[in-house]
Amino acid sequence: MAERLHAIVTTQAPELSPKLWYGQPAYARKGKVVCFFRSGHVDKEPYSTFSFTAEANLADDSGLWPTSFAVTELSDEAAKTITALVTKAVS
């Protein structure tokens, strides 16, 4: 799952640099983390998470936007959602 997420992020946002953040994969712009993956296995949780920081350009006028997603499998639909969010996050 982490490898597929890495492929999505690096393809959709080549301007983000991969780095480790608290021992987990993250992607940064100018040294500031925009999004990151946390393994549920490492955290002994039933699911992993893919999350965005305040550096991501996801805010909108509604006052409500996503910042973290539970991931149990990376279906094609989930991959499309993450692709769209990563694209928006770096816009």
Question: Which secondary structure elements does this structure contain, and how are they paired or packed?
Answer:
Blueprint: H1 2-12, E1 17-21, E2 24-29, E3 32-38, H2 40-43, E4 48-52, E5 68-71, H3 76-89
Antiparallel strand pairs: 1-2, 2-3, 3-4, 4-5
Helix pairs in contact: 1-3
Characterize the structure shown.
This protein is an alpha+beta fold. It has one domain (2-89). The chain is 32% helix and 30% strand. It has 3 helices and 5 strands. The chain has helices spanning 2-12, 40-43, 76-89, and strands at 17-21, 24-29, 32-38, 48-52, 68-71. It has a 5-stranded antiparallel beta sheet. A hairpin with a 2-residue loop joins strand 2 (24-29) and strand 3 (32-38). Helix 1 crosses helix 3 (76-89). The longest helix has 14 residues, at 76-89. 22% of the residues are buried.
DSSP helical segment count? 3
Number of structural domains: 1
**Rg for CA atoms:** 12 Å
Q: Please report the distance between the alpha carbons of the first and last residues.
A: 25 Å
Largest sheet: 5 strands, antiparallel
> Per the principal axes of the C-alpha atoms, what is the gross shape?
globular
Strands, count:
5
**Uncertain spans:** none
**Helical proportion?**
25-40%
User: What is the ordering of alpha helices and beta strands?
Assistant: HEEEHEEH
Which class of secondary structure composition applies to the elements?
alpha+beta
Q: What is the structure about, briefly put?
A:
The protein is of the alpha+beta class. The protein has one domain.
